[in-house]
Amino acid sequence: MEALFIGHSYIDVTIVAPAIPQGDDKTVADDYAVSFGGNAVTAAFAYAKLGGKPDLLATQADDWLGRMFADMALSYRVSLHARKVARSSLSLVIPRADQRAILRMRDDQWLHPFPALNINGARVVHVDGHQHDAALHYAGEARSRGVLTSLDGGAVRQGTNALLGLIDVAVVAERFCEQLELSADATLNYLRERGVKVGGVTQGARGMLWFEGAGAHQRLDALPVPHDLVVDTNGAGDVFHGAYVWSYVQRPAAPWAEHFRFARAASAYAIQHLGNEAKLPTAPQVLETAARFGAPLHGIMTR
Predict the structure, then answer these.
(1) pLDDT class for 299, splitting at 50, 70, 90?
(2) 3-18+30-292 maps to which CATH number?
(3) Whole-number mean pLDDT of the chain?
(4) DSSP string of 21-69, one letter each residue
(5) CA 255 to chain CA centroid, nearest Å
(6) Model pTM?
(7) Domain layout of the chain by residue ranges
(8) For 243-282, b where at least 16 C-beta lie within 10 A, e where not — what string?
């Protein structure tokens, strides 16, 4: 095993439309995309597109959407470890400029305990707080073996506080800060107090506020992608996570500033494409995007 990702799977249906119909209205959409979805799930697929070999512990139902998801994992060579649920989860995503509305149905009533996995050889365990029992278990196993643990803190979920005590790298969303009723700076202080070694708060077009070790808080600006090139921001943060995990596995001794700059370029690529599958870059495409927007990257292995 190289990298283990743990999360909740969705099928995302992304629709671009001039308006959302109500009542008996009908509207013709301009475009659509159907893809995998979910925070750690999309991060795992991003990691695979960059050339990694991820293992993914995710929910899966025995229905046609579940079989579609399994086919997607197979096509990307994502090693899927399924935790059964009765129905697949579905998201309807409606992007508009740099925002997106999401309507989702989620089945998180697991039918079985999480599967037992051998994480020998793993370099990273990345979780998003879903499947909190599995996240706690495998983050604990990773910590006992000296394996890096990473958290996508899209929201404060059940078990988040306990989980943070096992996390090395935590990059959280502004929603996470809002739930804690803390500013971004105060949230970083909270993460540091919980033992997180590298912490960040992503802030969309404003980039990311972050720290490493005992260092001061610092700003990583977003790349200046022109407004008219922004197609779909949904999932860009998940691509960011998958990209920094991949960068770390390639160069574990590199400073985190370099991993985050690589991830920033990956997410800048992502927002220019519709749907999660189309927004996954290869490593050369990440380098091309970074150079295009004035922040060239050096020393990154592309395979």
Answers:
(1) low
(2) 3.40.1190.20
(3) 93
(4) --TT-----SEEEEEEE-HHHHHHHHHHHTT--EEEEEEEESSHHHHHH
(5) 20
(6) 0.94
(7) 3-18+30-292
(8) bbbbbbbbeeeeebebbbbbbbbbbbbbbbbbbbbebbbe
